[in-house]
Amino acid sequence: MQPKLIIHGGAGRSLKSKGGVELVRRSLYQVLEQVYPMLMAGAAAQAAVVQGCQLLEDDPRFNAGTGSVLQCDGQIRMSAALMDGTAQRFSGVINVSRVQHPIQLALALQTSPDRVLSEVGAAELLRELELPPYNPMTEIRLQEWLRERQENFTHEMAGVVVEQELVEDTAGRGTIGVVALDSEGRLAVGTSTGGKGFERIGRVSDAAMPAGTYALPSAAVSCTGIGEDIINECLAAKVVVRVVDGLSLTAAFERSLQEAHQNQRDLGAIGLSATGAIAWGKTSEVLLAAYHTGDRLGDTLEWQTGELVGSVAA
């Protein structure tokens, strides 16, 4: 089996500048160039997904890990999930603080009888794993929150992808996500997010739900965009189950994204099938995704077609 890899860094408004597009492309391609060789060397899909998520969590340009947005009280609370398609095992953490890589906690829970932990439980897991406390806040996110507080939080959410060094020059409303198919035909998916920004304390994103992160032996999907819209569509699970029921990955994306469009949702998604097909879709203006087919790198940053779905055949 030829390994395949697709990643995303958010979805939302179009990037405002050509320079912003190139910076995001460089960030995404660097992750592909580090993770894909792992798959070629025989690494399992789950290991590749975790590594890809950690790299994206470390990039302050994206809203996950370092560079996560602040909630209304000025605190960062992150969520992440991991699902192994072969084992059909989901794990995740919700609203965890002071950790560098939330996806690492989701990985630790893969072998636990209790696989999804919220704020207090996730903090206790952090201590059990003896991971050092980490402050993911960046100066640009702090200044973004301070300006918004002065305006009495008039925006429903923060900017998600930081272009250049201006908070105002932002795009996206999403998460980071990685989907991998390894040389043994195994699928895995991971998603990590800092949330919407400025949200009510205790709000839960789609990332740590099957609505936003889901995998079975036949397909795996990670979502991004407005979490409430993704939850309402149960998008990731819907696409995967449609592949199980006999649709191709592209057809499953097309039917699901058309429904989301009719329902006026604002979201995006990436996915892989066990046959090696790659697909993505969006109802938002832009989807910040990139992929590796084994032969070439590609991305969706300037994908402006009138179609809701794009794909690369197996």
Report on the architecture of this protein.
By secondary structure, the protein is an alpha+beta fold. The chain has a single domain (4-312), classed as (Glycosyl)asparaginase (Glutamine Phosphoribosylpyrophosphate, subunit 1, domain 1, 4-Layer Sandwich), CATH 3.60.20. Helices cover 31% and strands 25% of the residues. It has helices at residues 18-40, 45-58, 102-108, 119-128, 139-150, 227-233, 235-244, 249-262, and strands at 4-12, 78-84, 89-96, 116-117, 161-162, 170-171, 176-181, 187-193, 213-216, 219-225, 267-273, 278-282, 286-292, 297-299, 309-312. A hairpin with a 5-residue loop joins strand 7 and strand 8. Helix 1 (18-40) packs antiparallel against helix 2, helix 2 (45-58) runs antiparallel to helix 3 and helix 7 (235-244) packs antiparallel against helix 8 (249-262). The model is unreliable at 160-173 (pLDDT under 50).
